[in-house]
């Protein structure tokens, strides 16, 4: 293969010698905006997968479905409305689970939805060359490599310059492949073409990038037909071979940094905090000041537009996703990442109450959160006012539930989980009332005077990352 390399733009390609001697032209275009992935998502929409953490248990759904089926067979349609009312009354008066689910109240629409809900199953992923755009994220834009017939060249005849003009524009050169219909010699070989790219400087790949080519027939990205992949990490250069030139993208696993190994939210001052995450592949921290956030990351290559810049939470999230620095979750995350099964009501209430006290208290992951059951949440908490790290001896464990919260007698280093409450503490219906009992006057003043937009920003970050659910369970 003959190599053509353009170092000033970080692009290159390889052609076989017969192809290089042909009258062809190669056009290379790199666009930062990726509209092809958007077309793929629109033309091949993914069926929504309902969360496996339903507020109604699977047994209840099965029981309701079987009862409803029997009623329909008996020809008594009015029983459906009676059953809906009974579900509402059961949610209001009966406490089937003292652990915290008894406080849930269903509306009529929610009850109807629970009746018709089918138990969702995890997505079964088979080995397929077609790229799942929920599991993989295209980064750095699209690379277009195309071959054309060389246009008729001008030549001089006497005092005249003559050139044949075509009104058809550039004509695509069909590079022969093994399946090409015009190959006459079955023994002849069709050498592939090669491409090399320097990774875009505005994105980060924490693993060797995956290459996907566009299948124009179905408008989907595919990972087959790519061979001889070589990645030079020091030079951030990727080269590979393909049967023929096609548009391609570089991809990275969407949730490669999940689950989190550890996390911590601690105050730096009034209406200021530091959110630190230790992920599966990289660590980062986000400083929150009022309603502004600033990312700090060990890997800074190509992220000068992102690292150390103050921006709003939505702007920071978009910039991080575009750069391949993803710590955020969505409705599909649980299909690809192991997680703790937690009651959504208890989990979301914990985030909201943590945000209210983020100016005065530090919060951190506890390994016992995976051992306390789905209806409870366990985390480490302590009052902390200065920007220095929290001493290990200052942490205490708190057990949060939908009906009551308490401080635990055990510590993070205990040998087994115990729900016994601390002898010098009391039970409370909410987490914030429990914390208020032990806060100093200065701590209480900080919580009462916290900037409302600071609280909203903390809530947004916690709900977007869900550290109580997507943390290491071992």
From TrEMBL:
Residues 52-68 have a biased composition (Polar residues). Transmembrane segments: none annotated. Residues 44-104 are annotated as: Disordered. InterPro entries: IC97/Dnai7-like (IPR023247). One of its GO terms (cellular component) is axoneme. GO terms for molecular function: beta-tubulin binding; microtubule binding. PANTHER family: DYNEIN AXONEMAL INTERMEDIATE CHAIN 7 (PTHR20929:SF11), LUNG ADENOMA SUSCEPTIBILITY 1-RELATED (PTHR20929). This is Cancer susceptibility candidate 1. It comes from Nothobranchius furzeri.
């Amino acid at each position: 293969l003959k190599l053509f390399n353009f170092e000033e733009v970080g692009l290159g390609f390889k052609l076989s010698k017969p192809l290089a001697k042909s009258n062809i032209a190669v056009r290379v275009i790199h666009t930062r905006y990726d509209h092809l992935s958007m077309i793929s998502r629109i033309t091949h929409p993914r069926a929504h997968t309902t969360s496996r953490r339903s507020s109604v248990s699977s047994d209840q759904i099965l029981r309701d479905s079987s009862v409803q089926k029997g009623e329909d067979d008996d020809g008594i349609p009015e029983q459906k409305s009676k059953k809906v009312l009974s579900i509402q009354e059961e949610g209001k008066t009966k406490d089937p689970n003292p652990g915290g689910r008894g406080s849930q109240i269903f509306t009529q629409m929610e009850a109807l939805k629970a009746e018709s809900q089918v138990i969702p199953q995890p997505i079964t992923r088979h080995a397929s060359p077609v790229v799942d755009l929920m599991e993989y994220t295209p980064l750095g834009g699209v690379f277009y490599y195309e071959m054309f017939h060389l246009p008729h060249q001008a030549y001089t005849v006497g005092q005249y310059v003559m050139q044949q003009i075509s009104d058809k524009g550039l004509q695509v050169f069909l590079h022969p492949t093994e399946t090409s219909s015009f190959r006459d010699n079955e023994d002849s070989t069709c050498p592939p073409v090669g491409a090399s790219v320097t990774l875009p400087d505005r994105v980060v790949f924490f693993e060797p990038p995956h290459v996907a080519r566009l299948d124009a027939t179905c408008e989907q990205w595919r990972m087959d037909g790519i061979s001889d992949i070589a990645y030079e990490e020091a030079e951030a250069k990727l080269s590979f071979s393909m049967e023929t030139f096609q548009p391609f993208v570089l991809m990275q696993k969407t949730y490669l940094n999940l689950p989190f190994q550890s996390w911590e939210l601690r105050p730096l001052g009034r209406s200021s905090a530091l959110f630190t995450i230790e992920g599966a592949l990289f660590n980062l921290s986000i400083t929150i000041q009022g309603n502004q956030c600033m990312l700090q990351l060990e890997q800074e290559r190509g992220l000068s537009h992102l690292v150390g810049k103050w921006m709003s939470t939505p702007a920071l999230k978009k910039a991080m996703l575009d750069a391949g620095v993803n710590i955020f979750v969505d409705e599909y995350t649980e299909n690809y990442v192991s997680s703790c099964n937690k009651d959504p009501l208890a989990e979301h209430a914990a985030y909201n109450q943590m945000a209210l006290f983020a100016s005065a208290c530090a919060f951190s992951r506890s390994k016992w959160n995976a051992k306390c059951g789905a209806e409870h949440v366990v985390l480490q908490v302590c009052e902390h006012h200065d920007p220095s790290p929290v001493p290990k001896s200052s942490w205490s464990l708190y057990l949060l539930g939908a009906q009551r919260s308490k401080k635990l007698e055990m510590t993070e280093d205990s040998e087994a989980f115990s729900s016994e409450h601390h002898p010098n503490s009391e039970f409370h219906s909410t987490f914030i009332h429990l914390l208020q009992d032990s806060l100093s006057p200065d701590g209480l003043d900080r919580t009462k005077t916290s900037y409302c937009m600071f609280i909203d920003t903390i809530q947004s970050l916690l709900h977007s990352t869900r550290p109580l659910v997507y943390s290491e369970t071992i």
